Amino acid sequence: MTEKSKGFLMDYVPIILLTPAIVVSGALAGQAAYKIIPAVVTLFVVLLSSKLYRVAFLLGAANCILYSVGYFVDGLYGSLVSCLVISAPLQVLSWFLWKRSAYKQATMFRRMKVYFYPLIVAATAALALGMLYVSNRAGGANGMIALDSVLFALGLIVSVLLAFAYIEGYALNLLSCALTVVMWVILAARNVRDITYLLVSLYNVFRVSIALAACVRMYRAQQLERKKGDEA
Q: For residues 129 and 145, what is the distance between their CA atoms, to the nearest angstrom?
């Protein structure tokens, strides 16, 4: 099997299998179209993101609007706010910043200084607690408020880190995706109609793992080019 064939299998076979699975399972479970459509669009957003394409940010921003409808209905206000007020604008900003420092289809990546790590942890905790308070006051989804608040905090931190092309953003995104799987497993167990989001969240973990590896490889290549340029 050629590398091109392997690439096709890795990139498109999961989408070819998941798209009808999401649509059919959603339809059989009585899932509303406003949940099925963004789930399918996400497959393509995540595929482009895993290949580090800047344009993925623009498609992702548009998809946030579609997702927000489902989050509102489910009472996931942390995710709702994250989508409309934070994620969508940040993704547009990310596209602009990546384009300004373009490198091939992506951008010039950077690494965060280690002494910033505790600040990231503290900021995540503060944001999660703040959203937990707001969600409790707003009467968010019972039993999921805490996890939803943590995902809100991680989503914001990840969005900011990726906007400024920090490779740590991909590592935190992988953690966020794993926790998202946990959330949708619980919600799907309560309501089978949420199976579409569960399928997408599983695919996200797979693709974000690939994105993290690709980002690290590109960062190392950039550093090598920069070193050779300095030596010249």
A: 10
